[in-house]
Fold this protein.
Amino acid sequence: MKIKHIISGLIAGLFILYSCSEYPIDDDGLLITTQEKCYIGSIYLYGTDNIDCLIQDSTLIDTINLTVNGLVKFGTNLKYLKPAASLSIDSKITPAMGVWTDFSLPRNYTVISGNRKVIKEYTITIRVEGE
Amino acid sequence: MKTIKHIVLFLGILISGISCSDETASSLRDDYIMKTIAPAMVGETLEFAYAMGALDGVLASVTAEVNIIGAPGTGFNPNSFHVDSRGNDIGVLVADTSTESNISRAVFSIDTTAATLRFNYVVPEEARGQSVYITFEAESTLGEKVSTTTPKYPVSKMDIKRGIVMTDNDVCFFSIETMKSYTAAEVEAQGLTDKIDLMYLYDALNSDGIIYGHALVSPGSDEKYLNSRIIPASFSLNKTRIQKQVFIRDMQLSGTIPANFVDDIDLETLDLSNSLDFILGISNTNSAFIETADGKYRAYLFFNEAKRRTLTFGIKRLEMQ
């Protein structure tokens, strides 16, 4: 009976070790996976009122030319926006989003795939409605 | 020797026993809760519930002594309250009340061994920026007394004003210094042309057909945000920093839950250096932080209602040192 438990424990331990070695961790503490996809799926720009001011219908994400052309509502302060984006599975983006950012000039963001082998640099350009 | 030791030990126990019984000799018990959870502000009321009960005799009177004399309205409510099964406060008249100087009194008009009286302290101007505390004392018909003192409650340095109404193209100018809205003629007549910080206007769309809505715009804002309105030539073109908020709803101004409050520290630490000088698309329950062009005042506005070319709001304002 005891031998059975020991064997089961060893198998479980080996399995866990194998699982960990399958997905190593990168410098940011994120799992490196087998995913090759690398793109920005959607983007959001939050003002100081924590409301997305991007007009989604008028925002175009071009995954071939690697551009994002966004339009924000009339009266938006372009110099003080907090971006957020959804990415392809297991990808990451640099510089990190979620911080106050000046979008009065185009900004470059680099998307890195889950396997960390595909790297794409997007240019995000934002205009204000009516300007 | 052993016998003497035992006698000393026995006496020690006896004395400590007497001491303990002395502390609990009074048959009166009391306690209080502060019902108000909002910051203490000048002109606002702090409400307390003071409960007392007597094991012997009945309740005779109760006093509340405050360290800073309260504004008119300070005093005990003559009713004792209990809560019914539906959670409603039920008041029963039990006392005659009076307030003189810094002491409020309630003398029980019925025989009762227990009661919970409400005490209202209306914060006076003298308390601005100070701390207030209250000492409650109850007395029974046997002459027994019991008292309790509250902690010190800091009083805000802010001013508060509710129900300010502005209308498009009419009473559309607002001064943070006076916390009042004016027509252009009133501004001129009262010599306030350099004290206007914001103008209210409403247009569903701007001249380019873009959604505009209810707006507060500085006199010195870019022309395109003034939406064809003309600022009188005599007015100072102040650029008031203003930042719209959607999820910050101060309960003292909104009158509704959740119980969030803007306090002194929020305005003291406010950084509007990245803000614009206008906000557009104001809706009911939106709010805004503002700072005058000269940095003398910071304020929080809560918009109770924005409809039919009218904006109704309340303000909490802090004068910066």
Observations:
- The first strand of chain A starts at residue 40 and ends at 46.
- Residues 25-128 of chain A form a domain with the Immunoglobulin-like fold (CATH 2.60.40.2340).
